[in-house]
Amino acid sequence: MMNIVTSEEVHNYALEKGWWDKDRPIPELLCLLHSEASEGLEAYRNDIKEGEKHCLSEELADLVIRIWDMSKALNIDIAKALNEKHSFNLLRGYRHGGKIC
After folding, report:
1. Nearest residue to 10 via CA among 19, 1, 2, 21
2. C-beta separation of 42 from 53 below 8 A
3. Domains (range + CATH), the chain
4. What's the CA gap between 29 and 93, in Å, rounded?
5. What confidence tens digit (pLDDT) does each residue in 28-53 have?
6. What is the signed CA dihedral for 47, 53, 57, 62, rounded to 10 degrees?
């Protein structure tokens, strides 16, 4: 069985590697999330096969890693927030009221 990494482990690694030697503004952190999502789009557009460097799953993993790191640094319980948001979404209508995207 594979061990699942925790947000604490992810954040501790980032601390070790110097990514938190200075305060990081929230806009910077959010832009880094956007860049990982954009790299995922490029992986899709360029049809990078799974298992190859910079494939979609790798870029999605980078996105999750950045979210976990950021949430731990900001003392956000991301697991709790995810569960609460999912519970709320379960109550929403089909396509959340007719949204297109």
Report:
1. 19
2. no
3. 24-92 (1.10.287)
4. 32
5. 999 999 999 999 999 999 999 999 99
6. -130
